[in-house]
Each structure stands twice: as C-alpha cells, then as structure tokens.
Amino acid sequence: MDMPARAPNRNESRSIVRRGRPVGDREAKRADLLKAVISVIAQEGYAGASLRKVAQRAGCTTGAVTYYFENKEAMVAAVIEHLFDQFDTLLDFADIKERFRRWLDMTGADADLWMAQFQLLAVARHEPTLAVIFQRRYTRYRRVLASNLAKGQSEGTIRDDISADLLADQLSAMGDGWMMMLPIEPDRFGPRRIQVLLDAVIALIAPPRRAARRPRG
Amino acid sequence: MDMPARAPNRNESRSIVRRGRPVGDREAKRADLLKAVISVIAQEGYAGASLRKVAQRAGCTTGAVTYYFENKEAMVAAVIEHLFDQFDTLLDFADIKERFRRWLDMTGADADLWMAQFQLLAVARHEPTLAVIFQRRYTRYRRVLASNLAKGQSEGTIRDDISADLLADQLSAMGDGWMMMLPIEPDRFGPRRIQVLLDAVIALIAPPRRAARRPRG
Amino acid sequence: MDMPARAPNRNESRSIVRRGRPVGDREAKRADLLKAVISVIAQEGYAGASLRKVAQRAGCTTGAVTYYFENKEAMVAAVIEHLFDQFDTLLDFADIKERFRRWLDMTGADADLWMAQFQLLAVARHEPTLAVIFQRRYTRYRRVLASNLAKGQSEGTIRDDISADLLADQLSAMGDGWMMMLPIEPDRFGPRRIQVLLDAVIALIAPPRRAARRPRG
Amino acid sequence: MDMPARAPNRNESRSIVRRGRPVGDREAKRADLLKAVISVIAQEGYAGASLRKVAQRAGCTTGAVTYYFENKEAMVAAVIEHLFDQFDTLLDFADIKERFRRWLDMTGADADLWMAQFQLLAVARHEPTLAVIFQRRYTRYRRVLASNLAKGQSEGTIRDDISADLLADQLSAMGDGWMMMLPIEPDRFGPRRIQVLLDAVIALIAPPRRAARRPRG
DNA sequence: GATGAATGAGGCTTCATTCAT
DNA sequence: CATGAATGAAGCCTCATTCAT
Question: Rounded to 5, what percent of chain D is helix, strand, coil?
C-alpha cells in the first residue's frame, strides 16, 4: 500500500510552509510559470530546463508545475504558443521598416524569447506534437508577412521581380538564421551591427534604385 | 593516457599521421563512431543521442565509445569539427550557382549532416567549449563566402550596392534559416520548391535588372 | 546538455565504493536479484516492492537492478516464471499424498514463494503481460495434475464419479484459496491444522468407501 | 472533528441513525463514494485506485473524498466492510444449492465485488488494520457456513465423514480460489463451465451414493 | 586493447495529504 | 460544507561515467 508515513503534525512541520488553498488567479500563475520556463530555457538551454529548475525559478515546488501542466510536453507546447503570441505582435506593424525596428527592439529587450524559440525549434524536430504547432503558426506568420510585402510591392516600396511569397520565405529564413546565430556569436549582434544588417535587408528588398541605371557607365 | 582528448582538425591530424605506417584501425573506428553519432543525432535529436544508442548504431559496446572519446563533450566536439569539414567542401566551388547546386544536393543526400548541425548548434548555445568551435568555423566559412562574393561583384555578376561582407552574412543566415525549418516543414522543401527558392536567391543578389534588361536588347 | 558535473577524482570518491567490472556470473546475480524480489514482495507486499527496496535487499544499487531487468514489468515477469518453476517441482511426485506432503513442506519452508505468488496474481489481474504468463503456466499445472488424478482413478485410489479434469480444477482452486488466506490468517495454518486439512482433502477425493467395496451390485 | 473516522458496520450504523430526521446526504454521498472505489479497484486494480481517480469516477473533487474519509486507509477499511455486508446476504439462503445459485449470479452481475475483494485481500496482507477486518468477517462467514453444513449433515444431504467445520473451510477456500482465477482466466468461467463446477462441488460434498439411494431407511 | 557490470545523480511523474478560502 | 491549489516524498527510469578484468 502506498500510503506514506503519516504527515507530521502541524507543530512538527516546517515553520513557514504555506499549505491549503491560496488566493491566486489560476491564469496569472500559469503565465508566471510560462515566463519562468522561457527564462530557464533561454539561459540554460532546453536540456537544462528540468521541471525542478523551472519550479525553482518560479519560486514554487515541482509539484506545482505539474499541477498547472499535465505534462512536460504540454508545458512546452504552451510555451511555444505563448512565444508565437508575442511574435505575432510584430505583425501589427504594417510598415516594413517599423516592423524591423520592433524586431530590433525585441532582440535586445526580450532576447529570452528568441533564445527559447530557437531551442524549442530544435526540440520540435523530434517531437511531432510540437512540430505541428510550429508548422501551424509559422505558416500563419509567413502568410501575413507575404501579404504585407505584396502591399509594399503594389505601392512601389518593395521590389516586385520576386513574388511576395518568396520574399516572405527568404526574409523569414534570414530572420531565423540570425536568431540561430545570435546566441552563438553574441558579439556579432551588437545594436550597431544589427542596425547595419537591417539596413542591408531594406536595400535587398528595395526596388532597383534608379541609381542602378548608371552604375556602370 | 597517450591518446588525444580533442579531435584535431583534419588538417592538423593529417600532418601528424606517421608516414610509412598504416593509419591503423584507430582512426577508422573513430570515423565510424562519428558517423554513428551524426546519424543518431539527426534521427533522434540530441536529447536522444545517448552513448548507449550511439554504440548500438555503431555496432559496438558502450565501453568502446568512452574508450575512443574521453568524454561525451569531446565526442560532440569531434562531431562538430567533422561536420564543418564536410560543409567546407562546398566552398571549393567558386561559382555561386554551382555552390548552391551542391548545397541543394547535400540537402537531399546528406540530410543527416544538416539535421545534426542544427541540433548541435542549439546545444552549443550553452556549452562554451562547443560554442567556441562554432564561432571559429562559422567565421572562416563566412570569410570565404564573402571573398567569393567580392569576386562576383568585381566581375559584375553580383550586386555591389551591399558590401560582400553583409551579403555573406545575409546568405549565410538565410541558409541557416532554411536548414532550421527543413526538418520542421519537410513538405515545404521538395526538390522543385528548393529550386525556386534558389532561383529567387540568385535574383536577390543579382545586379539590378537594368543591366540584365538590355544585355539581349 | 545533460552532461553531469565531472565525476569526482578517485581521491574524492567515497572510499569503499567498488567500480569497474566485477567478477560475478551474470545468471547467478540475476538469480540473486530474483530471490530478493520475491523476498521483498512476500514481506512487504507488491506495493512495497520498489526497485529501491529490492536493490537494498540484494545489496546493490537501483541502477544494478535496472541493469539486469529492462523494466520493472520484465523483472516481475521473470519472478513469476521463476515461481512456477519452483512449484513445478511439486509435479514430479506422482503420488498424490506425497505431493501434498511436499506442498506442506513448502508452505512452511518457502512461505515466501506462496506469498509472492498471491501478490503477483492480484497484480496480474490488470497487467495483461503478466496475466498471460499465469494463464500459460496454470494451465500446464492443472493438466499435469489432472493426468495424475486420472491415473489414480484408474488405480481405484481416487473417486471416479467426478472427472479428473474437474477434480484438478477443484483441488487447484482449493490450494489457491488457502494460499490466499494463509497470509491473512496465519494462525489458522499451523502445521497441525494443515495436516488436518490435507487429510480432509484426501478423504474428499477418496472413492466412496462403501461403493468401492461392492460397486454396483 | 465530529464525523466518525471508521465506517461502522451496517448493523451498528442502522442503530445509531437518528430516527425522525432524514438520513441526510452525508450517508448517501458516502455510499456513492464507496461504490466508486469498488468500481475503480475492480477495474484498474488497487494500484490504480488513487484518490483522484475515485473522485473522478464519483464525479466530485479530490477534496471531497478526503472530506468524507479521514484517510485512504479509512476509506479502504470502509470498502471492505461494505463488501462483506454484500457477501453476507449469501448466507441468508440456508439451502446449499440455492446459495451456490446466488453465488453464481453474483459472479456475473456484481463481478466488481469479487474483483475488489480479491484486490483488497492482497493489500490487507501487509496492512494490519485491514487484515483484522478480514479475519473478523471471514471467521464469521465460515462459522455460518459451517452451521449450515452441519444442518445438512444432520438431514443427510451432506456427507458426514468430514466435519462441517473442515468442509466449510474447504468450500470457502475453493470459492476463494475460483474468485482468484476468475479475473485471470475469464474464459474458464463462462456460465456453462461455472454450472459444471458447481455441480461437481455438490457431488463432492454429497453423502456417498449408496447412502443416498436409501436415504433413511 | 576493449569490455560491460555497476554506480548514483537526476529527470519526469503520481500520489496522499493539508488547509486557506 | 466543500473546494482545489500546493506540497514533498517516492516511484521508475535513463544516462554518463568508472574501472576490474
């Protein structure tokens, strides 16, 4: 029988332990936990993101984590959805330059988001459940991006010799590639360098300059 | 112990090999093990790449693996070097189109290499020892790529309104981004689609059309 | 990365810990473990038979147990087979009385066997893998018992108004029932009482006295 | 706390029930919970009978279970008493054949009772508190059975060469043995086979035929 | 030179239990 | 009355690593 030894009397129990039903709002606590997970994954890698460590960072016990998430897998899935929710806010900025600006800001301020995203992408490769989420949300992301680019093309601010669809694909991949290298070569991604990279992207997708008319004599 | 802990680069190791003497089973066995590691990482993810599984795939015992590699970390380091050795062969093709062609081939034939590379990149994020290797070899890779692009610029086959250095950075990132999504959305990367993507890249870095518009006129 | 902190140097390690390849015979050690499992199950019940406790009783670590048995389930399956192997030795005694005598002895000396058997039977109810083993071996057991009884019937030492098959079924069930109550009411199963019970069984399956004398006429 | 920890026997509880007042939801809810526990134990085994699952099946929260039962142990004890209350109804049928008939019916209709009984018997082996209950109630059960058999002996319908006490013991064990195998080999216990088994039992305890031929003359 | 038995830490999960609300 | 958030121990298992043979 797996009845553990009697729980100690109240006198015996650790003095400060808080038991019983606490106040908190369920959703709020869940959000806190998600933040803790992202933070741990970003800073210690997915392999280091044990439930214990997550609980520790969130300031609760392991049991609490498994109380809010059925599974580790479910927890990670929730994290991925949460991350995309954050990234989707980028899409609200129709202007392509403004969006890159925002992106730039996030790289600095919410670096954890990118780090975690990258780690999870690697994990998702072998976890079909997670892969499905990535497919769904990435597809949506690229679709919006493409439609923005198409608008830019019709306005003449984006080159139109490459379809908006392909451009979206290329830009998305480029962003991912940087996100990927960012943690490995942080020195390469100081604010100034990022600015330069973004400018180059703008140039890359700009319509052929009129200047191009006389480049070579 | 008289065996080297770190896997020397190919260049270094070549030079130390005793001339007249057969290279011995040691190096061969090590190479077999490296292949096994890559295969396991590619197919089961880094998390699934236990020494046991590696040994199993290589058809030997766990002891053998720890005998040939001082450490798991040392083993992984050796794998990374090995992977870059493979990728470096891409750089032998000076022509940009030809290189993309090769890249395309590798994506299909040696898909394991990409998968493993991606997995290890994620791991390296939190393993300074491994991160250093990536920095060193990536930098070298981009330098060669940039010099190739510079040559293309001077020959007028590559647009020169963006510095070769930045172009190399962008292309490298784009390639990484695709490598990253390839395992997640394999359907998006059928041979035909890849062809289209590569054509678009060529267009992206080509000199502005006007030049292209009236070569035939 | 889940490389644990470096293992401590030999100097630091616990003084008496034995590492490296030991001498023992694989099968012998496995048998020892099986005995430990039976002992634990018998004395603490199946619920109390944690791998930890088994290892403790066997004088090794938990890891060792999982080294010898792929699973807890596999371990339990091995135990069941082992138990039936022991019980099968009972079948070597063709004479019905002699067999009961042996059975009596086992009840006293190897009481652990019965206790464990009972516990495992309860568990098997909800573990198909284990249930299959019980079915197979119980069927075999009853078949041999029935053939022994049939021989007794043809020799006139066993009543023949009930088929040997049914008698085997009844006796087997009766034995199981006692095995079941034995741990609950040990006081009811002292040597003397068991003797009485067995005598009663002999009487139960003996040919009707008068009828045997002048069968039908 | 003013609620009773142990579940009183039916007889006892009946007497304490306040006369004029409605029995209240409390007892009803408790009974519902008991049914849920039995159902869970029968279908998932004792190991699977967590408080959570019980609550789930009863359609209430975990807290409710611990509210109605001081302990898991107390809950289980209540279940055992409840089970014996059910079985005791068998004893109301003095006629031996009629009782077996009833027994047969229960095997089919209330199979859960047997399954749970068996599971709990295994658990009780190592839980003195529970074992005591089994001893008390089993003893009572056998006493009534023996007195019934003694009556049969005096009426000449039961063989009298074996004491009623021993016969009760044997029959009880046989029944337990079948109960034990029933979940393991359900195929062996179809309605027809059970009928045959019961007939054989009747034959087993019947007086030697010759006597039966000329009953009392 | 190679093996593989054994270790022990740590990961995920389940569970009975407590108690503020 | 009744709930359900939170606890913390324990269970099973996997793994990198060590080392006698």
Answer: 75, 0, 25
Does D72 contact A at CB distance below 8 Å?
Answer: yes
CA distance B159 to A161: 15
Q: Are D123 and A3 a contacting pair at CB < 8 A?
A: no
DSSP annotation of A89: G
Nearest residue to A172 (alpha-carbon basis) of A191, A146, A147: A146
SS3 content of chain A, % helix, strand, coil (to 5): 70, 0, 30
- Tokens 């055992």 identify what position? D80
Q: Which of residues 48-67 of B touch strand F (CB under 7 A)?
A: 48-53, 62-63, 66-67
* C-alpha span between A81 and A124 (Å, rounded): 13
Q: Name chain C contacts of B72, Cβ cutoff 8 Å.
A: 3
What pLDDT, on the 0 to 100 scale, is given for residue B217? 32
Q: Under a CB-based contact definition with an 8 Å cutoff, are residues D40 and D85 in contact? A: no
The reply to whether residue D71 touches residue A1, judged by beta carbons under 8 angstroms, is: no
Element (H, E) at C38: helix C26-44
Dist. CA C209–CA C38, nearest whole Å: 43
Contact B177, A142 (CB under 8 A): no
Q: Which of D47, D176, D208 sits opposite C181 (nearest CB)?
A: D176
Q: Give the Cα separation of B165 and B148 in Å (integer).
A: 10
pLDDT in tens, A66-115: 999 999 999 999 999 999 998 888 777 667 778 777 877 777 778 899 89
Half-sphere exposure of C216 toward its Cβ, with a 13 Å CA cutoff? 1
Taking the C-alpha atoms of D147, D151, D156 and D162 in order, what is their torsion angle to the nearest 10 degrees? 20
Per-residue pLDDT tens over the stretch A203-212: 889 998 654 4
Q: Is the pLDDT of residue B176 over 80?
A: yes
Residue B48 CA to its chain's centroid (Å): 21
CA A87 to chain centroid, in Å, comes to: 6
C130/E14 CA-to-C1' distance in Å = 22
Q: Please count the other Cβ atoms lying within 10 Å of the Cβ belonging to residue A46.
A: 23
Name the strand (E) or helix (H) holding D65: helix D62-68
Q: CA quadruple B118, B124, B129, B131: dihedral positive or negative?
A: positive
Separation between Cα atoms, residue B76 and residue B97, nearest integer Å: 32
Q: Is C22 helix (H, G, I), strand (E, B) or coil?
A: coil
A24 touches strand F (CB under 7 A): yes
Give the per-residue pLDDT at B93.
66
Task: Among all protein residues, pick the one whose CA is nearest to the C1' atom of F11.
Answer: C50
Average pLDDT, chain C: 82
Q: Do chains B and D touch (3 or more CB pairs under 8 A)?
A: no
Number of H helices and E strands in chain B, helices first, is 11, 0
